[in-house]
Amino acid sequence: MPYLSWQEGNQLARHAVHEACQVGRDPLTCSVSHPGMAQLSRVHASIDRIGAIWWVRDLNSANGTLLNGVPLNPHQGNALQDGDELVMGDWKLTFTEGFPGLDGVTFAERVGDLFQEVRPEPAQAMVLIRGIELMQRSTEKLLAQVDSEAMVKGLLEESLRLLHGDRGFLVLKQKEGGWRTAHRVGDVQEGIGLSRTVLDYVAQERTAVLSNQPLADPRFGGVSLVELHRGSLLCAPITDEGEIHGALYLDRESEGRPFSRFDLAIFQAFVRLGSMALRQAMLNQRVLSQAEQQGELLRLRTECQRAADRHGQLLAAMAAPLRRVNSWATELPDVSGAAIRSQLEQLMTLLDHGSREEQLEDAPMAGHPLPILALQEDLARRWDSLLKFRKAQIRFSEPPTASIWMSGGPLVVALAGLVEPVLMQLAEGTVVTTRWDQERGTRVLRLSLPTGLQGPAPDPWTQRVLQDAGVRWHWADQALDLFFPDGPDAMPEEPPRPLLGLVSEELNLLGLFQTVAEAGNLWLHPLEQDPPPPPLPKFRFLVVDARGVRDLKGCIWAYRHHPSFATTPILVVRCTEDETPQLIEAGATDWLTEGFRWEALHHRLQVLRGHTELQQRALAAERLDSFRQMAGTLKHEINNPLAIISMQVEMLQRKYPEEVKLAKIGDMVERIRALVQVLQKMRETPTEGYADGSSILKLG
């Protein structure tokens, strides 16, 4: 940062030129002013930056402006360089690119490279050789580290050894401002560290600094410096691609051991090399992490391909026996043979569909309209042999002249897997009737069945095919309703994936968690350390990176007390064993320490999912049990006064048989008694499952 400086008596006054400013006599208008100097104009000159160059221009002042003894260009002004002198009347100012007035020995900064700081004397040649030798050894030790964390520690420890410091700090700059100590060595007391003003100055000026008298250094100040009772210090910024990410700080306790400009040059060069080595280590670690993820993904793909090949081989081996059984079934009697051949035909369809799924796993199914008449004829043909075998029959109603939307795939086979287990329960001579209805974009086929039959319980494959085809079913009052979409607009939308929340500031974790999310059929959703305001979508898991947040315990506590995450499992990764009690107390569900692998993370999320489902089932069972207990209590509490009322009404009817109102009261009593019987059924009736996994109490 450039400065303007001038003498005020025996003191050197300074002004940091952060932005364009004006120089003159008026303190209200000019950032740099001298009100008591009559030779100055009210607004004498201006200093502005054009690109990376600072320019000075005279603003038609009465006495003009001199730059190094030469008048300024009257039209465009002149460029300023380090050490230039400006004269405005009797006022002399000096322009410097760094802090002015440093003696270069007690206070120094902006030193050159090693070769520039060595004086042309024979003794200095040995100093340079010794300095290069020490720096080479330290750099070799530093480059031997491959882990970024070990590199951080090595950078500080080698710099202390190189320059014989008493203690040192390596601090990192935080995104929200301030500094965080990553590593420290030496006699470090808790609460007394290094001056924040030194760090802020180094970051602001982007230069390495030397101070052999920190308390008297004009560059620093503030409360934090008073706590720093050190003899001398060195501090240099850690930069990467022009951005300051941290700083390296060394000091000596004794005032009789000052640092030299050559020490600052060595320190500056070593920190530059360390910054590049640290960046290289972080890049290597990121590459290794990505390579490990790619290798894990390749391994999983290979395993999936092997499983798919074995699956295909198994399906191919099943095809030949099925064909032989089908050929033998042609010699069976008419009714039983037809039923067996119908089932074998369905098996062959399933086999063919499974073989095609191996080749076109993610291929979308093409949809087309299918006349209801064609669907009904196909179902009647498939169920005819089965019904004859059971000596039952089905009477189809007249189908409407309309179509349903056929999304593709073995829909008719899936319908058979849903309905035929129910038809197999029919007694001899049973007649099943059907009826077609229409409800809001769907066509409904209702099968009315006799009492005493168990409802359908389709297998997972049948459920998936029906769901993909947009077909819903409902079993109630001994009737099975099949809902078919009548067009593509009536097809249900694909249900959204549940979310996997990730709280971390390290981007290299996103690739790993993206793979885990895809394996668990989840969407990865990055989150900040502070929870977003409600309402939020439902999160199945929340993962918090212990090394990617500033306040780990506070972050977990905030999410656990957020209404959208009150019951969400919270998994903490990359934490230490010592932190786990505090994390559990803050609201974490589980944790993984540093160095976890893909399989461990995926397995831990599956365990948490199963644990959550068990908790939900236990809660639902507890609520249902409480409901049944409440129903039983209400039954007894209502029956007692109801019995008294019924008895009194009966006595009054005997005494006053002509009174009509007593008969109405008796009817109301019987109605209440029927409702009480419903409460009794609620207490005794078991639950009945539905296709979507829900359950109800079936009362009739």
Automatic annotation (TrEMBL):
Highest rank taxon of the organism: Bacteria
Domain named FHA: residues: 21-72
Enzyme class label: transferase
Catalyzed reactions per annotation: ATP + protein L-histidine = ADP + protein N-phospho-L-histidine
EC number assigned by the record: 2.7.13.3
InterPro entries, A to Z: FHA_dom, GAF, GAF-like_dom_sf, HisK_dim/P_dom, HisK_dim/P_sf, SMAD_FHA_dom_sf
Protein name, UniProt field: histidine kinase
Protein source organism: Geothrix limicola
